[in-house]
């Protein structure tokens, strides 16, 4: 996927520069010869985590270990499948970047005037987006170590507290190493053998680094796509409000100079609004499957975490809570931005209605009516076409998760 047209914009107006650099580094965008990097990274994560965990199982019959192992499998499987689902959608991403670039050019008139409201808004949003993406990248850099170091430290404390025959100091229990992830690893004794444990620790650390990088690509890209859709509707609303500053054309004289000038500007705003709707439709096609998977994963995480807390509180609770909060915050982020997108899309119609449209000609009023009708549609992103993502749906997901937890806990109590 080439990015030449997108990168022809000034640096302060470029769209998703940090995310695109991350995607280019792993081979998802840029020269086609680099796609092997994504295949290698995806294959490594599958080989170390997904395949042994899904085929060979957790390796423990304890309820807390099973919940932790399933939560890890759910988190990593959801992450890898979501990123893989973006690969066939890359042509849509390329089209989205092209449409957004055209909107930015139209909104700023290819001028870089800091006093221009549209230009200032784009620069402000790009600055906030860049800071968020870099913060999230740094945050994800600590993820693999948060998973691996506590398990390693706990295992070392146990190991150096044992006797030479591999039992605890009191001789009552055989030594078991604490794993960063609950799973089997190709029939190696990773829980009891010192060398195999460290081999698995090194491999899982590298695989978790791949997971963190995939998380950067998935979460930041999806969130920022929704944010850019909200931004373009705000740009359209600004341009509409600028129309109110123009003198009205005379209704009976369509050759009036003011009428012709305003007609040109109105047609340009209508075109921008049409492109904004196209951008929303492209984002919807790209992210609707990953968002649906995220909502389902959030429900399962909520249920498993509450079951875990209600049955056992130990060392493994830390990892489960980390995954739970990551899933919850990500789902809330999609919901919050989905609500913001819907409100900004409707604000376009409100901006048109606030114009002194009754002073303009019938031809201009037809364009106004067209934009109002388009803005009255329920605009937003959906979860696999089932529902429009928003804060209200997030609240329903929380209530639904608690209901499922009560049913699940009742079933477990009867076993």
From TrEMBL:
<protein>
    <recommendedName>
        <fullName>Odorant receptor</fullName>
    </recommendedName>
</protein>
<dbReference type="InterPro" id="IPR004117">
    <property type="entry name" value="7tm6_olfct_rcpt"/>
</dbReference>
<dbReference type="GO" id="GO:0005549">
    <property type="term" value="F:odorant binding"/>
</dbReference>
<feature type="transmembrane region" description="Helical">
    <location>
        <begin position="38"/>
        <end position="59"/>
    </location>
</feature>
<feature type="transmembrane region" description="Helical">
    <location>
        <begin position="197"/>
        <end position="217"/>
    </location>
</feature>
<dbReference type="Pfam" id="PF02949">
    <property type="entry name" value="7tm_6"/>
</dbReference>
<keyword id="KW-0812">Transmembrane</keyword>
<keyword id="KW-1133">Transmembrane helix</keyword>
<keyword id="KW-0552">Olfaction</keyword>
<dbReference type="GO" id="GO:0004984">
    <property type="term" value="F:olfactory receptor activity"/>
</dbReference>
<keyword id="KW-0716">Sensory transduction</keyword>
<dbReference type="GO" id="GO:0007165">
    <property type="term" value="P:signal transduction"/>
</dbReference>
<feature type="transmembrane region" description="Helical">
    <location>
        <begin position="317"/>
        <end position="337"/>
    </location>
</feature>
<comment type="similarity">
    <text>Belongs to the insect chemoreceptor superfamily. Heteromeric odorant receptor channel (TC 1.A.69) family.</text>
</comment>
<dbReference type="GO" id="GO:0005886">
    <property type="term" value="C:plasma membrane"/>
</dbReference>
<feature type="transmembrane region" description="Helical">
    <location>
        <begin position="136"/>
        <end position="157"/>
    </location>
</feature>
<keyword id="KW-1003">Cell membrane</keyword>
<keyword id="KW-0472">Membrane</keyword>
<feature type="transmembrane region" description="Helical">
    <location>
        <begin position="291"/>
        <end position="311"/>
    </location>
</feature>
<keyword id="KW-0675">Receptor</keyword>
<keyword id="KW-0807">Transducer</keyword>
């Amino acid at each position: 996927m080439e990015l030449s047209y997108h990168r022809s914009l000034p640096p302060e107006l470029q769209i998703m520069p940090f995310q695109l650099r991350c995607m280019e580094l792993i081979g998802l965008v840029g020269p086609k010869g680099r796609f092997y990097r994504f295949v290698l990274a995806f294959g490594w994560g599958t080989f170390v985590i997904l395949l042994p965990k899904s085929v060979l199982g957790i390796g423990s019959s304890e309820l807390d270990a099973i919940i932790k192992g399933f939560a890890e499998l759910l988190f990593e499987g959801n992450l890898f499948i979501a990123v893989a689902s973006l690969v066939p959608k890359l042509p849509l991403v390329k089209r989205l970047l092209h449409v957004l670039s055209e909107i930015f050019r139209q909104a700023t008139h290819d001028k870089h005037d800091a006093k221009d409201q549209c230009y200032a808004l784009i620069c402000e949003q790009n600055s906030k987006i860049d800071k968020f993406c870099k913060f999230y990248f740094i945050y994800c850099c600590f993820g693999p170590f948060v998973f691996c170091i506590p398990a390693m430290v706990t295992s070392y404390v146990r190991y150096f507290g044992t006797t030479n025959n591999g039992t605890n100091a009191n001789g009552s229990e055989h030594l078991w190493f604490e794993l960063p992830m609950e799973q089997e690893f190709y029939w190696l004794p990773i829980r009891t053998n010192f060398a195999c444990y460290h081999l698995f620790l090194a491999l899982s650390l590298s695989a978790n680094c791949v997971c963190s990088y995939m998380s950067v690509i998935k979460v930041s890209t999806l969130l920022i796509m929704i944010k850019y859709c909200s931004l373009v509707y705000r740009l359209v609303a600004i341009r509409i409000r600028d129309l109110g500053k123009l003198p009205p054309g005379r209704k009976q004289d369509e050759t009036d100079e003011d009428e012709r000038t305003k007609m040109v500007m109105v047609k340009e705003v209508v075109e921008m609004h049409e492109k904004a709707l196209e951008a929303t439709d492209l984002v919807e096609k790209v992210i609707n499957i990953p968002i649906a998977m995220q909502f389902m994963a959030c429900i399962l995480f909520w249920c498993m975490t509450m079951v875990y807390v209600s049955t056992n509180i130990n060392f493994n609770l830390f990892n489960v809570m980390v995954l739970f909060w990551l899933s919850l915050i990500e789902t809330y982020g999609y919901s919050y931005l989905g609500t913001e997108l819907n409100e900004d899309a409707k604000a376009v119609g409100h901006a048109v209605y606030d114009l002194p449209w009754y002073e303009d000609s019938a031809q201009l009023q037809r364009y106004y009516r067209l934009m109002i009708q388009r803005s009255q549609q329920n605009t937003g992103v959906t979860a696999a076409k089932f529902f429009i993502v928003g804060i209200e749906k997030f609240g329903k997901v929380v209530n639904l998760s608690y209901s499922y937890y009560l049913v699940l806990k009742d079933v477990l109590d009867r076993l």
